[in-house]
Amino acid sequence: QSALTQPASVSGSPGQSITISCTGTSSDFGSNNLVSWYQQYPGKAPKVMIYEGSKRPSGVSNRFSGSKSGNTASLTISGLQAEDEADYYCCSYVNSDTWVFGGGTKLTVL
Amino acid sequence: EVQLLESGGGLVQPGGSLRLSCAASGFTFRNFAMSWVRQAPGKGLEWVSGISGYSDYTYYADSVKGRFTISRDNSKNTLYLQLNSLRDEDTAVYYCAKFDGARIQLWSFDYWGQGTLVTVSS
Q: Using the beta-carbon criterion (under 8 Å), do B108 and A36 form an inter-chain contact?
């Protein structure tokens, strides 16, 4: 069960847009498997930001969006704000009744 | 309001055992699959185990298969994780999380507890 591949860190200035990628294999991202994305502040529990690849839970800002192309899923945050500075993780169901997380990406708002 | 409250963490020696609990409220517990996710100090998230609503299916990461056992008591709205043969590398915060989604390939973790720390050390 190899982890999905995410960049270790990304950064952006307030108001800019950033994209965090999440790359897996065809078995990770089969046609029926869609990624979820989680935001985590230091010392806090994760919070779901995107589920089923591109859906936003109630209460999550529409500045957060998800997409997928081939074996790469992406989380885009537009209009970057200081409060977006956190760790972000992707997660996917794998075709063996297991789930795998990405290694995590630390977002820094400059 | 959905609430998940973990307990049972602590310091245990290598080779020892521990049982974690997660008390759930604010939703119909038996209708949802549940999961445990852990995070070693300074590291990323790692999915550990999952269980269907009526315990007919259980799921485990290779790293814990044969050592950890997930279970639930729907009459008590409580999820459990029995940790046996503990190793140093099992040291982590263990989170209880609720699954949601129309089918297993779409399940995501929509609510999380605050976590309980398990430290394996001699």
A: yes
